[in-house]
């Protein structure tokens, strides 16, 4: 049986195109320079007025755009929605075929366009104006056809596109995105949005879980806790140590106050140091009496950070109340399983 031919992408390696490292580095430097041009020449009074209008809007803030600018407009709208701000994307084509019916005189329409001369937006603008909406043009071409239709025009300074032909919209869309997202965070600050309010808009994702879940929501409780007394022999507690799923023993007194912890790592070190003497040693003699702990009302993400902090990471944290009473244990595996 003959061997299969080599994949085509492995053949004629010498003919494959290569990118010079210095060329790539220079492109990044050029893009940085063009972005700096935007920051240095942005009209801050226009930007402030734009932000103030969005902040005081009594209706819905609609974003629209064509092509790449349309994608940016959709993204910025979605960011505002995630902050609890009424917003939506209005397709300029669909708007002219019925979707414009959603507009009211209380709404704001933000038209993103590099040139300000997109045919679809030029057709949409007077129709949106007739509905009584407040129109804002966000463009990089200072002389454009949208100017006459918009109540406010914001200029996004563009030195040139990174594209060697100055055509592909790569720098212009980058500054649109930076501008829109920065405005979104300004609105977030002005509305005094709390962490809890932000989290309530992201309940299913990692963002929401990290801001909503507390230690008491993810910790193991009695009777799952691998507890023992300090006078217990280490060898008598091996089953509890290895079968509890936590990799540790929580050493407590008669009142359930936490005394310390004994881990499978402590077991290995004790066995190496004492040999057969381990049969006579108690958990209390070898346990860590100063373990890291956490309270039940701490954020779950704080527990994860505490586990990963220096001098060395740990896999669990005993959960204690203000009286040092053991009420639970939170494990790294449990946090990861919960979506954190």
UniProtKB/TrEMBL annotation:
<dbReference type="InterPro" id="IPR046342">
    <property type="entry name" value="CBS_dom_sf"/>
</dbReference>
<feature type="site" description="Catalytically relevant">
    <location>
        <position position="161"/>
    </location>
</feature>
<protein>
    <recommendedName>
        <fullName>Arabinose 5-phosphate isomerase</fullName>
    </recommendedName>
</protein>
<dbReference type="InterPro" id="IPR046348">
    <property type="entry name" value="SIS_dom_sf"/>
</dbReference>
<dbReference type="GO" id="GO:0016853">
    <property type="term" value="F:isomerase activity"/>
</dbReference>
<feature type="domain" description="CBS">
    <location>
        <begin position="219"/>
        <end position="281"/>
    </location>
</feature>
<keyword id="KW-0677">Repeat</keyword>
<comment type="similarity">
    <text>Belongs to the SIS family. GutQ/KpsF subfamily.</text>
</comment>
<dbReference type="GO" id="GO:0097367">
    <property type="term" value="F:carbohydrate derivative binding"/>
</dbReference>
<dbReference type="GO" id="GO:1901135">
    <property type="term" value="P:carbohydrate derivative metabolic process"/>
</dbReference>
<dbReference type="InterPro" id="IPR001347">
    <property type="entry name" value="SIS_dom"/>
</dbReference>
<feature type="site" description="Catalytically relevant">
    <location>
        <position position="202"/>
    </location>
</feature>
<feature type="site" description="Catalytically relevant">
    <location>
        <position position="120"/>
    </location>
</feature>
<dbReference type="InterPro" id="IPR035474">
    <property type="entry name" value="SIS_Kpsf"/>
</dbReference>
<keyword id="KW-0129">CBS domain</keyword>
<dbReference type="InterPro" id="IPR004800">
    <property type="entry name" value="KdsD/KpsF-type"/>
</dbReference>
<feature type="domain" description="SIS">
    <location>
        <begin position="50"/>
        <end position="193"/>
    </location>
</feature>
<feature type="site" description="Catalytically relevant">
    <location>
        <position position="68"/>
    </location>
</feature>
<dbReference type="InterPro" id="IPR000644">
    <property type="entry name" value="CBS_dom"/>
</dbReference>
<dbReference type="Pfam" id="PF00571">
    <property type="entry name" value="CBS"/>
</dbReference>
<dbReference type="GO" id="GO:0005975">
    <property type="term" value="P:carbohydrate metabolic process"/>
</dbReference>
<dbReference type="Pfam" id="PF01380">
    <property type="entry name" value="SIS"/>
</dbReference>
<feature type="domain" description="CBS">
    <location>
        <begin position="287"/>
        <end position="340"/>
    </location>
</feature>
């Amino acid at each position: 049986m003959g061997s299969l031919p080599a994949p085509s992408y492995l053949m004629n390696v010498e003919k494959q195109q290569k990118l010079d490292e210095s060329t790539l580095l220079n492109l990044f430097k050029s893009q940085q320079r063009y972005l700096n041009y935007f920051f240095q020449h942005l009209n801050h009074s226009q930007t402030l007025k734009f932000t103030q209008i969005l902040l005081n809007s009594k209706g819905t803030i609609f974003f629209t755009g064509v092509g790449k600018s349309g994608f940016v407009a959709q993204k910025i709208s979605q960011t505002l929605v995630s902050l609890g701000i009424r917003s939506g994307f209005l397709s300029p084509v669909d708007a002219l075929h019925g979707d414009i019916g959603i507009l009211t005189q209380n709404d704001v329409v933000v038209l993103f366009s590099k040139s300000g001369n997109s045919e679809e937006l030029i057709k949409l603008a007077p129709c949106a104006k007739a509905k009584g909406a407040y129109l804002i043009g966000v463009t990089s071409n200072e002389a454009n056809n949208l100017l006459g239709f918009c109540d406010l025009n914001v200029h996004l300074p563009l030195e040139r596109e990174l594209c060697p032909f100055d055509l592909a919209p790569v720098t212009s869309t980058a500054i649109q995105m930076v501008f829109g997202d920065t405005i979104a965070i300004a609105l977030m600050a002005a509305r005094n949005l709390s962490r809890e309010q932000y989290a309530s808009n992201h309940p299913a994702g990692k963002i929401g879980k990290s801001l909503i879940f507390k230690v008491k929501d993810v910790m193991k409780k009695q009777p799952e806790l691998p507890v023992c007394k300090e006078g217990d022999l280490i060898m008598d507690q091996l089953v509890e140590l290895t079968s509890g799923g936590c990799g540790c023993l929580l050493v407590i007194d008669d009142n359930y106050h936490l005394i310390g912890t004994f881990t499978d790592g402590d077991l290995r070190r004790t066995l190496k140091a004492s040999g057969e003497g381990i049969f006579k040693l108690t958990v209390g003699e070898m346990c860590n009496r100063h373990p890291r702990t956490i309270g039940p009302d701490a954020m779950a993400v704080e527990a994860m950070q505490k586990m990963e902090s220096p001098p060395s990471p740990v896999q669990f944290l005993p959960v204690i109340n203000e009286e040092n009473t053991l009420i639970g244990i939170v494990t790294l595996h449990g946090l990861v399983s919960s979506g954190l």
